[in-house]
Amino acid sequence: MTRVLVLNGPNLGRLGSREPDVYGSQDLSALRVALTGIAAEGVEIDLRQTDDEAELIHWLYEAVDARHDVILNPAAFTHYSYALRDAAALVTKAELKLVEVHISNPHTREEFRHRSVISGVATGVIAGFGFDSYALALRAVGAAA
């Protein structure tokens, strides 16, 4: 079975209650159901969330070691975590796919959100489509039905 890691950074554990006008009213369990529903046969969705930068980095190491493609919503780490960028680069240097996703479009928000330190090492970036950003990313890594 093929596994795709869907990794979510800080504050995304509060989806559904945190700024629903920006992030929508659904939570991570709804995202898990949606992605599992469109995953290709033989694809396992491994959805995780952490507020801890080190844990997110270790999950990227795990992706490299186990040869899993990654869908990554780095959340606030997007804008300043060079440690996360370096770990993400290991994924793409290992010839695995890493798609950076965002529920909202960072470029329509505060100026400090306009820069991603992750994008330069990602296979691609999808933003602004709500939970559909993740569905499009799943298709991009070739794991959607």
DSSP, total strands:
5
Second rung of CATH, namely the architecture: 3-Layer(aba) Sandwich
CATH homology-level superfamily: Dehydroquinase, class II
**What is the tally of helical segments?**
5
**SS strand fraction:** 15-25%
User: Which overall shape is indicated by the principal axes computed on the Cα atoms?
Assistant: globular
Radius of gyration: 14 Å
In helices, the fraction of residues equals 25-40%
Mean pLDDT: 90
Number of domains: 1
Order of helical and strand elements? EHHEHEHEEH
- Low-pLDDT segments, ≥5 res: none
Across the major sheet, the strand order is: 2-1-3-4-5
How does this structure look, described?
With 145 residues, this protein is of the alpha/beta class. The protein is built from five helices and five strands. It has a five-stranded parallel beta sheet, sandwiched between helices. Helices cover 34% and strands 19% of the residues. The longest helix has 14 residues, at 53-66. The chain has helices at residues 20-23, 28-38, 53-66, 82-93, 132-140, and strands at residues 2-8, 43-49, 69-73, 98-102, 124-127. The two termini are 14 Å apart. The model has no long low-confidence stretch (mean pLDDT 90). The protein has one domain (2-140): Rossmann fold.
Element layout with pairings:
Elements (H helix, E strand, L loop, with lengths): L1 E7 L11 H4 L4 H11 L4 E7 L3 H14 L2 E5 L8 H12 L4 E5 L21 E4 L4 H9 L5
Parallel strand pairs: 1-2, 1-3, 3-4, 4-5
